[in-house]
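Continued from yesterday's entry.
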Amino acid sequence: MHKHNTTLGWDIGGAHLKAALVDADGTALQVIQVPCALWRGLDQLEKAIDAVSAKLNHLPDQHAVTMTGELADVFTDRNAGVAHISAVMIKHFGSETLFYAGQSGLVSAREVSLYAARIASANWLASATYMAMQVNQGLLIDIGSTTADFILLSDGKPQTRGFSDAERMQFEELVYSGVVRTPLMALADRVPFAGEWHTLAAEHFATTADVYRLTGDLREAEDMAETADGAGKTPEESARRLARMIGRDLHDAPISAWIGLAYAFKQIQLNMLKNAAMRNFSRHLIDYRAPIIVAGAGDFLARDMARQLKREYLEVGYKISAHNDETRSWAGVCLPAYAVAYLAAKSAT
């Protein structure tokens, strides 16, 4: 292979499309994230690709792709999802497009069908492989809009027990809990409010984005998903959705009470994620002084978790070479896209 000057890494999710442009040294030049409601059809991916392409400062020399979007329920199964998504990417960027196949590394377009099972939902392994090159040991916690990854790193490699989604969920290396799209009914059966425990409605009335708008944690640039009721994203509208979760209306209590309820939901989610972290720590593969490495749109939750567990934490951005601070920050949010671009850039000789 000849040396490429720039590589664009793509991370194709079920709700967002992320892209990271790096130079031959792996320095991040530009990072872009756009919404991509893949469950509505492949045309959503086409539109998202066009949106990213329109924002690029210059055209890349090569493309490298990782994905989790094959899980979208528009596809009959994961293999079909990988086939359809890869076909779209090859149509746009040609047969030279590379695909990340987890333990097998980067494979060519013609090898996609052979490696479909390893290409499916391997974006976390790209992130972990990159970070294991950068730190001696630690627990990488990448909290996104929908899920959280927990990956122990030591001896220059990820120390994972599972590779498939099913295995990773079983070992709590993958937890379906994120800071934007997770329905609040998935966090708990009950929540404290006005001095009492209130049972939650088993209904998609509100999401974690409502919680983190009210706590002030969620960055506006990360807040791309539609709301549960299709209404707006103001504090009052978010609080109204939270109130519905306990069978109440916004006017039943002052806004300060709804903000208090949001903080209660935050602690409930933190406790759930802390349990996963403690289970991973209990394998005793890393020193107790090893840091939690925080990444993703929910990096604020990982930081709070580290404080509660009396652990040091390391912002993933400190281990990313970037054109400027804003690009570095976005590369940390879109870590799999940056990681797959970096791995592809470094594999070209």
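--- second protein ---
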Amino acid sequence: MTQAPPPLVSTAAPVIEVRDVRKTYGEKVAVDDVTFAMPPDAILGLLGPNGAGKTSLIRMITTITAPDSGKIFFQGAPLSGYHPTQIGYLPEERGLYKQMYVGEQLLYLAQLKGMTARDAEARAREWLAKFELEGQWKKKVEELSKGMQQQVQFIATVIHDPKLLILDEPFSGLDPVNATRMRTEILRLHAAGTAVIFSTHRMEQVEELCEYIVLIDQGRNILQGKVADIRRQYVENRYRLTHGGEELPAALGERYELLKPTVSTVDIQLRAGESGNDLLRYLLDLGVRIQGFQELLPSLNEIFIKRVTRLNA
């Protein structure tokens, strides 16, 4: 039986707060004293390679398993059996009942989350229309394409209007059209106030969606914060010059390291103590025809490699 709602807490509290959480399976340490707080209404990227401990952490947040030690809070209240009704979880390993009809399955799963049959049907039909699946109501799940099955599972995840949406590799196996459609709905839900945890090992996807990240490796969180702040923290003082296509003055290569040159672009590594303004003034003094000039920020994948290398050095 679902537990009664916990006392009301401030919506300014972190959506999820994890404090010194540890989880082991026999000799294997899956989650090793992880601590982080998720800002309200954020899209948080939970990053790390396969086997890093992301799914184990998610299973504790959704109360599927319990921590061996440490505590988890949902909007300031200790995590309880009530909170799964406020969470939508799309696991990497999809779990639809293949012999059930689509409509029947959505109604069943929605009512498990506390919805009435009437409200569940209205919401299910509304969501199916968004994905152009209205005609699939009386089809068995096994009769649908893999892409359609994934969309139905997404609908089952969000049908009860959760406060927190947890997506574990949500775009895995989707074609570009359906991946774009799902991404659009995720962003729409977020704009309406739903907090989102996006778990993946594909860091380029996180850069498109997430404003805040927690980076997990070997069960430990090794980096966390706003994506923009982290990328600024790891800048390499490198700039990309777009020019008119003419041969660049030899003096430029004598003073700076030139990287990845093409017909009209080149990356320039600054020397210690110099700024982008110093480089820009020098380019103007040389008479270079500048069409574009931008600082290059490292990707999350590059940052992850550097961070892990430092920790293991």
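The chain has two domains: 16-231, 236-296. The chain has a mean pLDDT of 89. Will compare against the first tomorrow.
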